[in-house]
Specification:
With 138 residues, this protein is mainly α. The chain is built from seven helices and no strands.
Length: 138
């Protein structure tokens, strides 16, 4: 109840987040937890007690750089072959709809149907809504 009272005093959860209160509380809690683990005041099986020797994992996924090159080529070819004017129109419609309270899913689907990329769709939405910027207070 003390946390809820403090958050209410700060103006509610959104204000508490903006002021960094909640992040600071999480940071402090994580720090205290880690200090307890390192001092062995808190026992974590397999981390600071009762550890066993294990072989290293050998089958870790490693992506071949060639995959990136091929994907870039595919994307370039897609943008050359699609109707870019139609893509622009659908993205503009999405942008206009995003400025309202309309359901955006139909607009997103129309953009996808004309081969707008995820990056292009997200870019339009970032233009309208912005991008969340975490406020970190140390």
């Amino acid at each position: 109840m003390n946390y809820i009272k403090r958050i209410d005093e700060l103006g509610g959860a959104p204000k508490a987040i903006e002021k960094g209160y909640i992040q600071k509380e999480i940071q402090n809690s994580a720090y205290n937890y880690q200090m307890e683990v390192e001092s062995e005041e808190r026992i974590v099986v397999g981390v600071n007690k009762f550890q066993i020797e294990e072989q290293e994992h050998k089958d870790i996924l490693k992506v071949d750089p060639e995959v990136e090159r091929l994907q870039r080529e595919k994307l370039k070819r897609l943008k050359e072959e699609r109707d870019n004017k139609e893509v622009e129109n659908r993205l503009e419609e999405l942008k206009n709809a995003a400025g309202t309270d309309k359901n955006l899913m139909p607009y997103i689907l129309e953009a996808v149907k004309v081969y707008a990329t995820l990056g292009e769709i997200c870019g339009v939405l970032r233009e309208v809504f912005g991008e969340y910027q975490q406020s970190v207070i140390l």
